[in-house]
Amino acid sequence: MVSEIQAVIQRSQDAWNRGDGTAYGACFTTDATDVTFVGTVYHGGAEIGRAHQVLFDSFLRGTRLNVEIVETRTYGDAVAVVVTRGEVGRGRPKKLGKLATYTLVRESDGEWRIAAVQKTRRKPLMEAVSFRFQPASRPR
Predict the structure, then answer these.
(1) What are the backbone dihedrals phi and psi of residue 85, each rounded to the nearest 5 degrees, phi first?
(2) Would you give the distance in Å from CA 83 to the centre of its chain?
(3) pLDDT tens digit sequence for 109-121
(4) Which of 95, 97, 104, 138 could be bridged to 80 by S-S, CB 3.0 to 4.6 A?
(5) Sheet with 112-121, edge to edge strand ranges
(6) Residue 75 belongs to what domain range?
(7) The domain spanning residue 41 has which CATH number?
(8) Which backbone phi and psi does 105 adopt, to 5 degrees?
(9) Residue predicted with more confidence, 65 or 124
(10) Considering its fold, how many domains does the chain have in total?
(11) What is the 3-state secondary structure (H, E, C) of 24-79?
(12) What is the DSSP letter of 6?
């Protein structure tokens, strides 16, 4: 089951790297929510795919999505949460500075799809300051 879930993340990355908005959107449920790094909220796989195609044809042309899965947790047979580190750029990034939390669901057709994703830029300096002054706030 975990490999099927991780395969969806890989398919979305592959679609991004091909600049294929339709295939990217197909990784999402019809009522999905995509909260982008800049704070834009898209709803539904069709809208996510359409909007990303516009971006792939302009600002994001030729970019590559690099993703590393940090953890995958399942809740029953039909819900999973996947945390990733990633970065978008024209080459291989030196560091993966963004985090994304994906919620995936197994739909009635048996396929796993992304129901929600929230992307956030990691701020190491702010983390370091916080951990310095409040060491107990450091995660395990």
Answers:
(1) -110, 145
(2) 8
(3) 999 999 999 998 8
(4) 104
(5) 41-43, 28-35, 112-121, 98-106, 79-89, 64-75
(6) 2-137
(7) 3.10.450.50
(8) -130, 150
(9) 65
(10) 1
(11) HHCCEEEEEEEECCCCCEEECHHHHHHHHHHHHCCCCCCCEEEEEEEEEEEECCCE
(12) H
